[in-house]
Design goal:
The complex is a heterodimer of chains A (337) and B (430).
Chain A: H1 21-34, E1 52-57, H2 63-74, E2 78-83, H3 95-103, E3 109-114, H4 119-126, E4 130-136, H5 142-154, E5 168-172, H6 179-190, E6 194-198, H7 208-212, E7 216-217, H8 220-224, E8 229-232, H9 248-255, H10 259-262, E9 270-272, H11 285-288, H12 296-315, H13 323-328, H14 330-333
Parallel strand pairs in A: 1-2, 1-3, 3-4, 5-6, 5-8, 6-7, 8-9
Helix pairs in contact in A: 1-5, 1-12, 2-12, 5-6, 5-12
Chain B: E1 8-17, E2 22-31, E3 34-39, E4 49-51, E5 56-59, E6 61-66, H1 79-88, E7 91-96, H2 107-120, E8 124-127, H3 143-149, E9 154-155, H4 164-174, E10 180-183, H5 188-191, E11 196-197, H6 200-205, E12 209-210, H7 213-229, E13 232-235, H8 241-252, E14 257-261, H9 263-267, H10 289-300, E15 306-307, H11 316-319, H12 336-345, H13 351-356, H14 360-366, E16 381-391, E17 410-420, E18 423-427
Parallel strand pairs in B: 1-4, 1-5, 6-7, 7-8, 9-10, 10-13, 11-12, 13-14, 14-15
Antiparallel strand pairs in B: 1-2, 2-3, 5-16, 16-17, 17-18
The chains are: A alpha/beta (337), B alpha/beta (430).
C-alpha cells in the first residue's frame, strides 16, 4: 500500500457543516451496530489491522484522545499519540511541516486537535492523508456532535419521538467559544431539530442567529421552556479574566442548570454535557449525578462507538458505509486476536 | 542622431490628465525626463516614438500606501522588488510606510531608502516617517528633520496612536511643518484578539471578530482633535460606513480631513475569507456589504478621494499558518489599476475621477509634483489598454510576494508601458 491509493477517494471529517442528513444517519447507524464490540469479553476485532492512526493533539485532552485511541485499538489499528509538549512543534517546526512529516510515514488517518479555528481546513489543503477534526478552537468538533446525536437517538423513545424532526434542543452556556455548540447547532439542524442558543450576551456570537440558524435567548428559563434536550456547555474559567462574566456565582445563579431550572424544560427532558463538568458552575452537582436526567456517561460510551465508526469509514476508504455491508462484513463480525 | 535621454514621443493615445480634466486623443512629448507638450508637438530629430493608438495615456500612478519591507524584512519584499511590481502595475510613485526595521523614525533610514530606490530605478519612493518613535505611540518623531530628509507624511501605520494626548500633540506639532498625519484607525481594546470582521462569517467560522466600531471610534476621536488643533489628518484604508460618514461630515465643516480606500475594501467583503483563506486576512479586515457600499458611495461623492493599495507583501510561511496567526496584508500594486477600472465599469465613478484617485489626488495630499501631465513636471507616464481582459495570477506578479486576494479574478485594464522620468521602466510582455 502506498500513499497513492487514489482509486479510493479519501474524505476528511472536518466539520458537521459538510455532512448531509444521509451522511449523519449512516455514521449513526454504523456506530450503533459497531458498539456491541465494546461490551464483548474480548473487545477487539481485526477490521483495521495494518492501519495506522495518529492522534496529533496540540491541546490537552484526556477524554477525546483516549476515546480515539481506544476506538482505533479495538479495531486493531496501530495508534500513535503525539502531544504538543513532546513534539517538534516546540522546536519551532511549523504545523504544516509536522503534518507533512507524519504523512511521509503514511498513516491512514490523522486525528487533530488544535486551539486555532480553521486548522483542519489549512491541513486538508496541504496534505492528502485523511484528517479528522477532534476540535479546532471555537469552530467545530464533529465527533462530539455525532456522539451527542447518537445519545439523543438512543433516548428518542423516552421523549416520545421517532426521529430528530421537530425535537427542541437548548444549547446553554458559553456558545461564543464553543465548538461543541457550533457543531451541534449545525448538525442537529441538518437532522431537522429545532435548536436554541441560551447564554449571557457576552458569551454569544454577535450574529449567532444568522450564522447558526438558531434563535438566541439570554434568559435561561425562557430558553429552556419546552426543550426536550438540554445541552449544557462547559464554562472555561479563564473567560472571567477576559471580562466576559463578572463571577462564577453570578453565572451559576443566572445560567447554571439545576433541578429547579430544569423544571422549565419539557417533562423528562434529557440533560447532556460534553465534559469535563465544572460542578456548581454551569450545572449543579446534584443534577450532574442524577442518572434519571443526565446522560453524560452514555455520551462518553457513545463517543467511543462514533469514533470507531468514523475511523472505519475513513480507513476503509468508503465515502458511504452501507448497513448491509456492516452486518455481513466478516472482518467486523470476527472475534479478533 | 539620438535624442537626449528621457526624450520620447507618445503618439495617438487617449491622453487623460485628471487634474485639469483633460481627455482627448493627442500626442505627448517628453523631453529630458520632463513633460514637454500635449497636442501636436514637434519632436526633436531622432526622437523615439511609441504608438499609443487604442491606449490610455495617463500620469504614472501614485500609490500613497505601500509597504516595501526594506530595511528589515527583505525576505518579504525589497525596495527593488517592490518598485518592480509597482512599475508593472503602472505605479511610478509609492509612499513607503514606516513600519520597517529599523523604523523610519530617523533621517538616516530615510536616506538609506532613497538611495536604494534610486539604485533600483523602477519607481519613485517617497518615505513616510513614523509618527512616534519606534511606532510605540509615545514620543513624537523629529517631524521637521524627517521632512527635510524626504518624508512626505507621518504615520504609525500597522497600529494606531491610541493615546489621545499623544495624537493631539502630533496634530498640533505637525502644523509647524504643514505635515500630513495618516492614521491607522483601530481601537485596540475593542479589536482585542479579533482577526476578521465581526459579522456572520466570523460567527460561523468561530473566529474572534473586530467590530466596525473599532475604526469609527478612533476616526470620531481624531476628527475632534483635528477640530481642536487644525492639523492635517488622513484616514488610511478606511473600511467602515461610520468612518466614511464621519469624514464626510468633517469635510463638510471644512476640516483638513481626507481618507483613502483600498481596492480590496471597495471590491470585496468578509465573505472572501471563505474557508479560512489567509490571503483574505488584512488590517482593517474585509467588512460587510453595507460598509463596502458606503465606501463606494463615498468615492462617488468625493469623500473618499484616494484609492491606495496598502500593498503588504508577505512570505509564504507567514500566511501558511492558522488564520488567527497569519500575518495581515495583501499585495496590491499590480491590481490597483484594474480594480479601480472595475469601479468605472460598474458606474461608481467616471474614468477621470477614478484616475484622479490614483494620480493627482494622492500627489496633492503628499505635496509631491507627480500625478499630472502638466508641462515641466517629471515625465512619469503610464500607457494602458482599458479594455484588455486578463486574469490575476499570483504566480505571475512581479514582486517577491504572492499574497493577493484577487488570485483568479477576471479583470480589465492592462498596463502596456510604464515610463519614469521619460525612461521606459516596464513594458508588457518583456
Amino acid at each position: 500500500m502506498t500513499a497513492k491509493r487514489s482509486t479510493l477517494k479519501r474524505k476528511h471529517l472536518l466539520g458537521m457543516a459538510e455532512l448531509s442528513r444521509t451522511d449523519i444517519t449512516q455514521i449513526l447507524e454504523t456506530a450503533a451496530s459497531i458498539r456491541e464490540i465494546n461490551y464483548r469479553d474480548i473487545k477487539k476485532v481485526p477490521t483495521l489491522r495494518g492501519k495506522t492512526i495518529i492522534n496529533l493533539f496540540f491541546e490537552n485532552s484526556t477524554r477525546t484522545r483516549t476515546s480515539f485511541e481506544l476506538a482505533g485499538k479495538r479495531m486493531s489499528a496501530d495508534v500513535v499519540n503525539i502531544s504538543v509538549a513532546s513534539s517538534s512543534v516546540a522546536k519551532g517546526e511549523t504545523l504544516i511541516d509536522t503534518m507533512i512529516t507524519l504523512q511521509a510515514m503514511n498513516p491512514d488517518v490523522v486525528v487533530v486537535r488544535h486551539a486555532e479555528p480553521g486548522v483542519h481546513a489549512l491541513l486538508a489543503r496541504h496534505v492528502d492523508t485523511a484528517v479528522v477534526n477532534a476540535g479546532d478552537g471555537g469552530h467545530e468538533h464533529p465527533t462530539q456532535s455525532l456522539l451527542d446525536m447518537l445519545t439523543i437517538e438512543d433516548n428518542l423513545h423516552r421523549l416520545n419521538r421517532k426521529n430528530f424532526e421537530g425535537l427542541v434542543v437548548a444549547i446553554c452556556g458559553d456558545v461564543l467559544h464553543s465548538r461543541v455548540a457550533r457543531s451541534n447547532a449545525i448538525g442537529l439542524r441538518t437532522m431537522g431539530a429545532q435548536v436554541r442558543l441560551v447564554g449571557p450576551p457576552t458569551l454569544m456570537p454577535r450574529f449567532a442567529e444568522e450564522a447558526l440558524g438558531a434563535p438566541v435567548f439570554y434568559d435561561l428559563d425562557e430558553g429552556l421552556a419546552g426543550a426536550q434536550v438540554v445541552m449544557v456547555l462547559r464554562l472555561q474559567l479563564e473567560r472571567m479574566h477576559a471580562a466576559f462574566i463578572p463571577s462564577v456565582r453570578e453565572y451559576f445563579k443566572f445560567w447554571g442548570l439545576s433541578r429547579r431550572r430544569l423544571a422549565c424544560a419539557a417533562p423528562g427532558a434529557l440533560v447532556m454535557h460534553p465534559g469535563p463538568v465544572n460542578r456548581g458552575v454551569e450545572i449543579s452537582s446534584e443534577l450532574t449525578d442524577d442518572p434519571e436526567r443526565t446522560v453524560i456517561l452514555d455520551q462518553v460510551a457513545n463517543g467511543l462507538a462514533i469514533r470507531m465508526a468514523v475511523l472505519y469509514r475513513l480507513c476503509s476508504g468508503r465515502v458511504v458505509v452501507e448497513k448491509e455491508q456492516m452486518t455481513t462484513d466478516a472482518t467486523l463480525k470476527g472475534e479478533g486476536p | 542622431m539620438n535624442a537626449e535621454a528621457g526624450t520620447l514621443l507618445i503618439k495617438g493615445g487617449r491622453v487623460i490628465d485628471p487634474v485639469r480634466r483633460f481627455d482627448a486623443t493627442a500626442d505627448l512629448l517628453l523631453v529630458a525626463g520632463k513633460i514637454e507638450e500635449i497636442g501636436r508637438p514637434d519632436p526633436p530629430p531622432g526622437c523615439p516614438v511609441i504608438d499609443a493608438t487604442g491606449l490610455v495615456v495617463a500620469p504614472g500612478l501614485v500609490d500613497m500606501h505601500v509597504h516595501l519591507r526594506e530595511p528589515g524584512f527583505e525576505f518579504k519584499e525589497t525596495i527593488a522588488s517592490g518598485t518592480r511590481t509597482a512599475a508593472a502595475g503602472g505605479v511610478t510613485s509609492v509612499a513607503a510606510m514606516a513600519n520597517t526595521n529599523p523604523v523610519i523614525d530617523d533621517p538616516s533610514v530615510v536616506g538609506y531608502i532613497l538611495e536604494k530606490a534610486r539604485a533600483a530605478g523602477h519607481a519613485n519612493v517617497f518615505p513616510i516617517g513614523a509618527l512616534t518613535r519606534g511606532l510605540r505611540g509615545e514620543t513624537l518623531t523629529e517631524m521637521g528633520l524627517l521632512q527635510k530628509a524626504g518624508c512626505v507624511a507621518f504615520s504609525d501605520d500597522g497600529r494606531p496612536v491610541m493615546d489621545s494626548g499623544v495624537m493631539r500633540k502630533a496634530l498640533d506639532y505637525s502644523r509647524a511643518f504643514n505635515a500630513l498625519l495618516i492614521q491607522h484607525a483601530e481601537d485596540l481594546g475593542l479589536a482585542a484578539r479579533g482577526c476578521m470582521n465581526e459579522g456572520v462569517v466570523a460567527s460561523r467560522l468561530g473566529l474572534p471578530g473586530i467590530p466596525a466600531e473599532s475604526e469609527d471610534i478612533i476616526v470620531d476621536r481624531d476628527i475632534r482633535l483635528v477640530s481642536l488643533t487644525g492639523g492635517r489628518y488622513h484616514v488610511a484604508h478606511i473600511s467602515t460606513r461610520g468612518a466614511v460618514q464621519a469624514v464626510a461630515a468633517a469635510r463638510a465643516r471644512g476640516l483638513p480631513v481626507s481618507c483613502e480606500a483600498t481596492p480590496h475594501h471597495l471590491a470585496l467583503t468578509d465573505i472572501a475569507v471563505g474557508d479560512y483563506d489567509t490571503d483574505a486576512k488584512m488590517s482593517p479586515p474585509l467588512r460587510g456589504e453595507v460598509d463596502r457600499q458606503a465606501l463606494r458611495e463615498g468615492l462617488a461623492q468625493g469623500v473618499v478621494t484616494v484609492i491606495a493599495s496598502d500593498h503588504a507583501p508577505h512570505d509564504l510561511d507567514s500566511k501558511r499558518v492558522p488564520f488567527c496567526q497569519a500575518a495581515n496584508g495583501v499585495v496590491g500594486l499590480e491590481t490597483l489599476l484594474p480594480i479601480t477600472l472595475e469601479l468605472v465599469a460598474e458606474g461608481v465613478v467616471n474614468l477621470n475621477a477614478a484616475l484622479a484617485a490614483i494620480t493627482c489626488n494622492p500627489a496633492q495630499l503628499l505635496g509631491i509634483d507627480r500625478g499630472t501631465l502638466l508641462p515641466g513636471r517629471p515625465a512619469d507616464v503610464v500607457l494602458f489598454d482599458a479594455n484588455e481582459a486578463w486574469t490575476v495570477d499570483a504566480a505571475r506578479l512581479h514582486g517577491m510576494a504572492r499574497n493577493t486576494c484577487f488570485h483568479g479574478r477576471p479583470v480589465r485594464g492592462r498596463v502596456k508601458v510604464t515610463i519614469l522620468a521619460g525612461r521606459i521602466v516596464y513594458r508588457d510582455g518583456d
